[in-house]
Amino acid sequence: MADEVVLLDFWPSMFGMRVRIALAEKGIEYEYKEEDLRNKSPLLLEMNPIHKKIPVLIHNGKPVCESLIIVQYIDEVWNDRSPLLPTDPYQRAHARFWADYVDKKVYEVSRKIWTTKGEEKEAGKKEFFEIFKTLEGELGDKPYFGGETFGFVDLSLIPFYSWFHAIETFGEFNMEAECPKIVAWAKRCLQIETVAKTLPDQKKVYEFVGQMRKRFGLE
Amino acid sequence: MAEEVLVFGAWGSPFSRRVEMALKLKGIEYKYIEEDLTNKSPSLLKYNPVHKKIPVLVHNGKPVAESLVILEYIDETWKDHPILPKDPYERANARFWAKFIDEKCLSAIFKACWGACWGEEKEHEKAEIEHEKAVKEVSELLQFLENELKEKRYFGGETVGLLDIAANTIGYWLGVFEEASGVELLTREKFPKLCNWANEFVCVTAIKENLPPRDKLIAYFRNRFGAGNASK
């Protein structure tokens, strides 16, 4: 029986990008459905009644929600190729810990920078640099967070690269100057075909964020 | 080679108790180290420099932090008495609800019991409305869990699983918060299945042996957060 895979998503979502990269890495064919988050489809509300959020993966009619949970699901179902997590339990725990760190910290602090101004924004920036310093520490001299190959933690963080231009412009700083190791890591990831094909253009994201800021009354 | 398993925890924390419950279920021997959270040990800071929090599991010298990450590590390392199902869809489901409990339920429960913005609410009326809102939110969240339980004995089916362990905050600590604050949230008339589950849950040996004493816990929360949000 042919697998039916549908992805409910929103093009600038870093969380959606994680799932798109995972599906591409595994070579899975799927139907992409773009959601208008100001007018959510009945399908989205039916498939994710609890959070009403994207991404949602619908596999043979059954929904899976929360991006990192979806990525692990994809890895476990299509387990015959391109593993997304290591096999050793300790390395898996290590990967889960850092992906969880990215989840808990990076989105909120990035959002703080482009949705606030003045003192609040400066506080956000300070926190942002601390978080990325911690991430640079974890990366160390490795080519990827996963070691020699692109892995779970890389996948969880790389989508934010498409937002760097927007964040640094509205944050009034230079990402490459502040976090050189992270930018170098990101450029390395972008050499990977699935990542390069998945991530939207930084300029497009910047324009999108600009429109959001206008709506929030920040411009 | 002899295995060395250490657990850094705090007696009243549902998060560190989760780790102990899982180890007990699998019959794994470990050494427990009680942390004074107002005076964290150099060991804790060494093993969890990023968050500086308990619980931390240290297995043969290698640390694992974050309770849900630790539970999955325990399940993958010690294969007896599995706490996650084999089917990927059911595994995703268990993970989803565990995350839901941790990210949504606990903060909502705290707000309903003690008010996250309690200190800022000067006007009694405003505080009343905030409290009602918070109670309503908890009710909606608990309803999701009630529906998820269906006719199962445990969230994990016939035996206690990862989601049951993660739901220890609902199965035991919620009752403690209710008594400490005087706010009723998990009522039998609204949530019969969840109440039944909680009763079964705390009777399971591996769980029962790892629950902190109720009176001590109630006194601790009353002392720390005050008498609570209950309408007088």
UniProtKB/TrEMBL annotation, chain A:
Subcellular localization is given as:
Cytoplasm, Cytosol
Give the EC number(s) listed in the UniProt record. Answer: 2.5.1.18
Main subcellular localisation: cytoplasm
The GST N-terminal domain is annotated at 3-82
Domain GST C-terminal as annotated: residue spans? 88-216
**GO cellular-component terms in the record?**
cytosol
**Under which name does UniProt file this protein?**
Glutathione S-transferase
GO molecular-function terms, A-Z: glutathione transferase activity
Tell me the domain of life. Answer: Eukaryota
What the protein does comes down to: Is involved in the conjugation of reduced glutathione to a wide number of exogenous and endogenous hydrophobic electrophiles.
One of the GO biological process terms: glutathione metabolic process
Q: Does the keyword Transferase apply?
A: yes
Family label:
Belongs to the GST superfamily.
Cited SUPFAM superfamilies = GST C-terminal domain-like, Thioredoxin-like
- Reaction it catalyzes: RX + glutathione = an S-substituted glutathione + a halide anion + H(+)
Which keywords annotate this record? Answer: Cytoplasm, Transferase
Automatic annotation (TrEMBL), chain B:
What EC designation does it have?
A: 2.5.1.18
Q: Name one Pfam family in it.
A: GST_C
Q: Which SUPFAM superfamilies match?
A: GST C-terminal domain-like (SSF47616), Thioredoxin-like (SSF52833)
Q: Which GO terms describe its biological process?
A: glutathione metabolic process
Q: Which GO terms describe its molecular function?
A: glutathione transferase activity
Give the first-level EC class, as a single word: transferase
The lineage's top-level taxon is Eukaryota
Catalytic activity reported: RX + glutathione = an S-substituted glutathione + a halide anion + H(+)
Domain GST C-terminal: residue ranges:
87-225
- Keywords for the protein's UniProt record, in alphabetical order: Transferase
Q: Does the keyword Transferase apply?
A: yes
Residue ranges annotated for the GST N-terminal domain, each copy included: 3-82
According to the UniProt record, one GO cellular component term is: cytoplasm
Give the family, as the similarity comment puts it: Belongs to the GST superfamily.
Give the protein's recorded name. glutathione transferase
Protein's organism: Castanea mollissima (Chinese chestnut)
Q: What is the lineage of its organism?
A: Eukaryota, Viridiplantae, Streptophyta, Embryophyta, Tracheophyta
